[in-house]
Design a protein that fits this description.
The structure is a homodimer. By secondary structure, chain A is an alpha/beta fold. Helix content of chain A is about 40%, strand content about 15%. Chain A folds into 2 domains: about 160 residues, Aspartate Aminotransferase, domain 1 (Alpha-Beta Complex), CATH 3.90.1150; about 240 residues, Aspartate Aminotransferase, domain 2, CATH 3.40.640. At the A-B interface, helix 3, helix 5, helix 6, helix 10 and helix 11 of A face helix 3, helix 5, helix 6, helix 10 and helix 11 of B.
Chain lengths: ~450, ~450
Amino acid sequence: MKERGARPSFFSEKINKRDVCMKFNELSAEERAALLSQYTAEYEAYRARGLRLDLSRGKPAAEQLDLSNGLFQALSAEDCRATGADYRNYGLGEGIPAMRHLFSELYGVPEELILACGNSSLQLMHDTLMRCMVFGVGDGHTPWCREERIKWLCVTPGYDRHFAITERLGFELISVPMTEDGPDMDMVEELVKDSAVKGMWCVPKYSNPTGNTYSEETVRRLVSMPCAAPDFRIFWDNAYAIHDLELDGDVLADVFALAEEVGNEDRIYYFASTSKITFPGAGVAMMAASKHNLAHLKPLMNLQTIGYDKINQCRHVAFLKDGATTMAHMHALADSLRPKFACTLRHLSELRALGIASYTEPKGGYFVSLDVLPGTARRVFFLMKEAGVTLTQVGATFPYGVDPKDTNLRLAPTYATLEELELGMSILVLAVKIAALESMV
Amino acid sequence: MKERGARPSFFSEKINKRDVCMKFNELSAEERAALLSQYTAEYEAYRARGLRLDLSRGKPAAEQLDLSNGLFQALSAEDCRATGADYRNYGLGEGIPAMRHLFSELYGVPEELILACGNSSLQLMHDTLMRCMVFGVGDGHTPWCREERIKWLCVTPGYDRHFAITERLGFELISVPMTEDGPDMDMVEELVKDSAVKGMWCVPKYSNPTGNTYSEETVRRLVSMPCAAPDFRIFWDNAYAIHDLELDGDVLADVFALAEEVGNEDRIYYFASTSKITFPGAGVAMMAASKHNLAHLKPLMNLQTIGYDKINQCRHVAFLKDGATTMAHMHALADSLRPKFACTLRHLSELRALGIASYTEPKGGYFVSLDVLPGTARRVFFLMKEAGVTLTQVGATFPYGVDPKDTNLRLAPTYATLEELELGMSILVLAVKIAALESMV
């Protein structure tokens, strides 16, 4: 089996076999008190500087965005008419062929299953759920708004915006712990025996925030497990499919191919976008689904809009050109990100040595997931806030915004400059140490 | 009261006082047979030419689109950072301030009520309806998917894509005839006494397809009428707000101002877009709603997307600049459209003289609504199709796609070239005459 980048962490009971607090635990109470006093003094010095840093959101830095500035001049009116169709006008609800082709090249999904859409894959996921609510997943299936009760599987830690949608729809969110190989599949297989469980959020590659990539075995089990609900659906958000930090990035199994082997291709709604390839919010999103699902979805999507922004699709094709050119662009982006991830991990290594934290070391994506001593994450967040550094809200990576162990922090190293990040991480290390020592009193 | 452009037509019983078929009626059966034979021969000559013309959709012609080609080079990366915020990145779910300001200038709606969104106002209407279905119109209101039965008012003839959404949602569509002043308000006021009537489609200016503009009295009655359903909503699709053909275009009353006078501003969901200002499908759409409605809608819209395409909004601001520049652009577009409408009306005048048709003469918008003798519209459509000219499907302008009197044809003069239009209209006149004569046998 291929080696994936993410390491074990506290968040899964199953893999939480490592002894924690080794070093700090070996100290006497007096030694710990002395250290706490020393760290607190150092922390106060930072706090007095009145800093303002943001390590909270997975946004690209301006330096990365600059690499896509070619988009601004990439296109002329002639390019929009080059195929004979006039992309300036109405029509082509499934997107322009060249963009669907490029997505197919990049994601390895057959072109005929791909719709090239608007600027947001989140919107596609949300709208697909709304269609499930109002119309159901297909003919003969009950609209979900008519169901008494719906349960939904959330791999945790996970993406807050996913959880927020299904929470607002009134679903009961069930946490499934992330393991090194993806979601805890024994648990998933057990849960889907309940017909109220209608679906599941998955970020299968460089998962937000752990950076894990699902193993082939996990993907195989997801597509082949028997589900009590005939309309069970996996929302497969492949947001970081080509977002490798290193050349030997993780390899994700082909979900449609594996699903077809067992005749379960209707189970998958597949999403991706160029949001972190070109410009967040001004990119192109895609959705892919089986032919049977598309036959149901396309007329419903055609009710919603006459077509997505074909000019922006055409612009992206002019700029990204083909798979090879796009991957070269991704390597340039990775060059810009690599020092930031290295900086983050370098600082965190001190915490690991002290036995007071574990963290993932992803080979791609946008986040590092940090687990501090259980019961101290909120304290760390507070200390950081007081020092002027914004972290992602504790609990944001869990359903209902509650981390039951108060242990997980999502670090987003991309948006800050390297200098800001160095500073922020120095303070974070101090804050984690302070919170740990306080908890050991 | 201001004079509005659209004239009476067959489609409203109330105003259908004109005597029809005067001229053809005065002829003897022999004379009519002779004419029919003559017209049929002329028609056959056209048919033999194997033409292929499309007068079916309200799409701008390439010549119009060319007037917006400045958009392609309007923007640089610097422009996207000029305000301090970086529009290339995530954020600003309500749209960029400059675009909201421009919309406010163009539509006379307060900026704080406006959201600048994606490329499609249809999408905003659809999504707003989906939110009504799943979440209801606001706190304390029942989601519409839980209602036993929902009825919806459709001003007819009207826009097929509006009707299609509410039909697919399972609403019972109720036709309300269009009059010269807008919907038949006596009928509307009667219908909304039924609490199952939850809303209404309106295209208040240069309505698709009649070109009528609602009178101030109509707008006033719409916002002030007592409605049995507390969650009654008017979907105010002001698609042609600034699309005048002449300088003395129709003036539409300020719906929010009139609604506020009577405390009913929550009744209005307002939509518009630049689709027929710049590029259809690659423009910017807007939604406006009362503060109270926005407080409910914005968190729900924030679930759906992190933000719309701010770069395209910025691009539009760079190109359209301000209200005055945009109106100059609209005048240039009108210059291109005016000869096509003139050509259409010139041909139709022969039919009016013969007493076998009535039609609207809009001062703006995208359509001319033609009423032929009741029972002959489908025959005209068929004759046109046989001659290679595609018209909008008969019935498309009515709920469920059925024109109960088989009388209405929507003419879309914009997309064809003037030469094609001349030819198409010549054939149409023949077809209407043939169908009329056939019906008099």
